[in-house]
Amino acid sequence: MSLQVTPLNNIGAEISGFNINDPMTDALKAELKALWYEHGLLLFRGQDITPEKQIEFSRIFGTLELHPLKAETSEEYPELFVLENGGDKDKFFTASYKGEEIVGRLDWHMDLHYTGRPNHGALLRAVVVPSDDGLTGFGDLAKAYDALDKETQELLKKIEVAYAFCMQRKHMRYVDLEGYEPGPHSPRKPSDMKYPDFPDSVYPAVVTHPVTKRPVLGIVEQFLDRVITPQQAGLSNDEAIELLQYLVDHTRKPEFHYFHQWREGDMVLWDNWRLMHCATGTRPGVKRVINRTTIEGDVQLGRVLSGE
Ligand SMILES: O=C(O)CCC(=O)C(=O)O
Ligand SMILES: [Fe+2]
């Protein structure tokens, strides 16, 4: 049996030519894992995937992580995290963007990045999807690094960047705030969402991927705050701010992106040590359900600034 690999728009690949319900050989598992590292994102379509199957399949790629908030996990399947729009919790995730109410829009981010120990990856499987909105975007920061000029690549090797966790988009320095207004129930402080107060985390501006050893641009717009000691790299504060804006604009280039328009049953796996992702959100009342499994991050990629 040989797998078919069909590249998606710009980044990632659709994988077909196997049946997820047939017994899988070690060779097939190894091939799937290698394809994950090669493409950063794999899409599986038209497979018959139950929650049990999703959990079993996810284990090919590493140890699974349980969501830290018990209330969020399914009682039957603790490895499964159900992302749901169109229910009671919508009001907390509703905000206004250029006059339009949107539920669950998320800026470009990496999961658990703010802890210094991001998840290794995740699998999302669409259970209920709206026909037009509710897309998930993915951005390849290894390709983004490769596309930088040599001079910028060299400069970045000398720099570390700090991320400041916060609940209010208005206080994030590099997200696009044009036309944004929080909703009346938008969380204002971490405890509103039962989160602890995470201290700042710090990453090299170029992160070496722990498995592939590829350089990955360490710039993600959500929570991005500042360059640490810019003068050590010969930069003034103004230059450091301009550099971060230049790099964020670079990561926003469509040639590094793939936006997935979900069909029911689709499953997407991504490498969270390499790709950032975002969600376009849905209009209020629109039902969307995604089952998520998470591959644990077993490597510390950043450091935590507490006590410094
Ligand atoms: O809802 C989505 O499309 C993506 C949500 C997300 O950011 C995640 O599952 O990590
Ligand atoms: Fe996420």
UniProtKB/TrEMBL annotation:
InterPro entries the UniProt entry points to: TauD-like_sf, TauD/TfdA-like, TfdA_dioxygenase
A single MF term (Gene Ontology): 2-oxoglutarate-dependent dioxygenase activity
Limits of the TauD/TfdA-like domain: 5-294
Keywords of the record: Dioxygenase, Iron, Metal-binding, Oxidoreductase
PANTHER family found in the cross-reference section: (3R)-3-[(CARBOXYMETHYL)AMINO]FATTY ACID OXYGENASE_DECARBOXYLASE (PTHR43779:SF3), DIOXYGENASE RV0097-RELATED (PTHR43779)
Similarity-based family: Belongs to the TfdA dioxygenase family.
Protein name: TauD/TfdA family dioxygenase
Species of provenance: Sediminihaliea albiluteola
